[in-house]
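Final report, closing paragraph on structural work. Over the funding period we assembled a curated collection of sequence-structure pairs, and we close with a single example.
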Amino acid sequence: MGRKWNNIKEKKASKDANTSRIYAKFGVEIYVAAKKGEPDPESNRALKVVLERAKTYNVPKAIIDRALDKAKGSGDETYVEQRYEGFGPNGSMVIVDALTNNVNRTAPAVRAAFNKNGGSMGVTGSVSYMFDATAVFGVTGKSLDEVMEMMLEADADVRDIIEEDDVVIVYAEPDQFHNVQEAFKSSGIEEFSVAELTMLPQNEVSLPDEDVQAQFEKLVDALEDLEDVQQVFHNVDLGE
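Its predicted structure, as stored:
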């Protein structure tokens, strides 16, 4: 899974370089999670997961508090979760997750981003079957054996644990996010280099040359720039 880890790092680096955009997206995601249940992470597990993810991107407390206050107060915006699937250059596969208060705005915008950048929209299910929903944690300062022991002691159900570039990476089922997080925290680990719920491709592909890769990266950027798009997942290996 090392190459997949490279893609997660690339994705996080891209988000870190676009702080205002990612902060705004997290603001919406926090608001939506808080509105689904209590605006308290101790009683709202979905909110707790979002807040942990936001922490790894250094989302300012003011933005988090604003979203929570909006959920507690008079905020009455209704957002719908939408997933779009499509193909990029060279048959690459792309999943786009959105939170939107206007589906009639979002779907055409996503389709246009595909069409203008060498891609095409697919039907529901045309791509997602080639991806696995996965919880991913990355920690530093601990050995592979130490992390394995933590997971065993906590009886956390994990898929794989690897070490790469001084980071120990834990892959688990999405419903194990909280259990893995608590396993780390019970061992004194409060900071994560990555704490994500992601879609990992079952197989990755490489693009044939720099021009095609540049076109693909332009497609991903165009999709991520859309106001309603929260996450973009793909099966292209960008780590080489």
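The mean pLDDT is 89. The longest helix spans residues 19-36. We thank the funder for supporting this effort.
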